[in-house]
C-alpha cells in the first residue's frame, strides 16, 4: 500500500513538474490554436444569429480548448474524446430535458451523472462534456427549442471546427504532435520524411 502511494505521489510530482516546463513557443501555439478555433465559431455565430442568442458558442467549448490546445498529450484531449464526449453528453442532456423538463434540481444532476457514465462506458471521457449536458437542461431560449438538433449544431459542428483547428496548429512544429495516437504519429513522420526527401 505504501509503495503504491509513494509511486502515485512520484508520478503526480513528475506530471506537475513537466507541465510547468512548457516554453514560450508552446504558449504561442496554444494561444493561436484557441484563438482561431473559438474565433471561427464566434464568427459563424455573429453572422448567422442575433447578438442575444448564444447558441453556437457554448461555454463547454472554452473548456475543451484548454485541453486540445493546451494539454494536447492528455488522453482526455484526443479526437475520440473531444467529439464523442460532447456528442454523447449532448444526446444525454437533450433526452433528460425531454423526460423532466421543468424540474431543474433533478434534470441537472441526472444529465451530468448520466453523461459521465456514458462517456466512461464508450471510452470517450471528456470533462467539458458534463457542461454540454448541463447546458442542454439548464439553458433558456433557443437551445431547449432545438431539441436533438442541439447535438448536430452547435455541438457536433463546433467540435469539428475545434478539431480541425487543433489538427492544423498542433502539428505545425516538430515539437507538437496531435493526436497522440501512434498510428497518426507514424503517418505524420512519413509525411515529414517524404517532404524532406522532395526538398533534397
TrEMBL record:
<feature type="transmembrane region" description="Helical">
    <location>
        <begin position="55"/>
        <end position="72"/>
    </location>
</feature>
<feature type="transmembrane region" description="Helical">
    <location>
        <begin position="148"/>
        <end position="169"/>
    </location>
</feature>
<keyword id="KW-0812">Transmembrane</keyword>
<feature type="transmembrane region" description="Helical">
    <location>
        <begin position="28"/>
        <end position="49"/>
    </location>
</feature>
<dbReference type="Pfam" id="PF04982">
    <property type="entry name" value="TM_HPP"/>
</dbReference>
<keyword id="KW-0472">Membrane</keyword>
<feature type="domain" description="HPP transmembrane region">
    <location>
        <begin position="22"/>
        <end position="179"/>
    </location>
</feature>
<keyword id="KW-1133">Transmembrane helix</keyword>
<dbReference type="InterPro" id="IPR007065">
    <property type="entry name" value="HPP"/>
</dbReference>
<dbReference type="InterPro" id="IPR058581">
    <property type="entry name" value="TM_HPP"/>
</dbReference>
<protein>
    <submittedName>
        <fullName>HPP family protein</fullName>
    </submittedName>
</protein>
Amino acid at each position: 500500500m505504501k509503495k503504491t502511494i509513494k509511486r502515485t505521489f512520484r508520478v503526480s510530482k513528475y506530471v506537475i513538474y513537466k507541465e510547468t516546463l512548457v516554453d514560450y513557443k508552446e504558449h504561442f501555439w496554444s494561444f493561436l490554436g484557441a484563438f482561431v478555433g473559438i474565433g471561427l465559431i464566434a464568427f459563424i455565430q455573429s453572422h448567422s444569429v442575433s447578438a442575444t442568442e448564444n447558441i453556437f458558442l457554448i461555454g463547454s467549448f472554452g473548456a475543451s480548448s484548454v485541453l486540445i490546445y493546451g494539454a494536447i498529450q492528455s488522453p482526455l484531449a484526443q479526437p475520440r474524446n473531444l467529439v464523442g464526449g460532447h456528442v454523447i453528453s449532448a444526446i444525454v442532456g437533450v433526452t433528460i430535458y425531454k423526460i423532466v423538463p421543468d424540474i431543474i434540481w433533478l434534470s441537472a444532476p441526472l444529465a451530468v451523472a448520466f453523461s459521465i457514465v456514458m462517456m466512461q462506458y464508450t471510452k470517450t471521457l471528456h470533462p467539458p462534456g458534463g457542461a454540454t449536458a448541463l447546458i442542454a437542461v439548464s439553458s433558456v431560449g433557443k437551445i431547449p427549442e432545438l431539441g436533438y438538433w442541439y447535438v448536430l449544431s452547435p455541438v457536433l459542428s463546433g467540435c469539428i471546427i475545434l478539431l480541425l483547428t487543433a489538427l492544423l496548429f498542433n502539428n505545425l512544429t516538430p515539437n507538437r504532435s496531435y493526436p497522440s495516437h501512434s498510428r497518426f504519429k507514424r503517418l505524420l513522420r512519413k509525411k515529414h520524411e517524404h517532404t524532406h526527401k522532395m526538398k533534397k
